[in-house]
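User: Is it possible to get a 3D structure for a protein together with its bound compound? The compound here is heme C. I've pasted both below.
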Amino acid sequence: MKTTTMTLCASVLLALAVPAQAAGDPKAGKLKTSMCAGCHGIPGWRTAYPTVYSVPLLGGQHADYIVAALQAYKSGERKHPSMSGIAASLSDQDMADLAAYYASSYSGQAK
Ligand code: HEC
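Assistant: Yes, that's possible. Here is the predicted structure of the complex:
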């Protein structure tokens, strides 16, 4: 009986956690920037691997642009060794949340 109750609770929680539409949530996006902040968010920052690249700042960028860029990396339409791998691991909801967060953070810093 206990298992049934727990399974039921878990399903209810899951149903609540999945939003009705894929609208970006800046608060959820902020929590997901931990995997982006190491490269993005430092003005003038360059990655040293696989070669030296300038890393574009995302803060203040349009949400639609960020989602389009991430989708393009994921589909292979746009290619970059680091970003292709990262975008491949993001769901549509992750992209929408990250885009909503970066679009609302004008300082250019991932705070
Ligand atoms: C290993 C370093 C690294 C990490 C980590 C990283 N990026 Fe990037 N990102 C880059 C580089 C370098 C570019 C520029 C690539 C190019 O020239 O296409 C880039 C480009 C982008 C672009 C396109 C920007 C533009 O102006 O066209 C977006 C959007 C983006 N990254 C989002 C993210 C998000 C969201 C995350 C976290 C989920 C993330 N990146 C994590 C290095 C990184």
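Residues 35-36, 38-40, 47, 53, 55-56, 58, 66, 69-70, 80, 82-83, 86, 98 surround heme C (CB under 6 Å). The CA atoms of residues 74 and 88 lie 5 Å apart.
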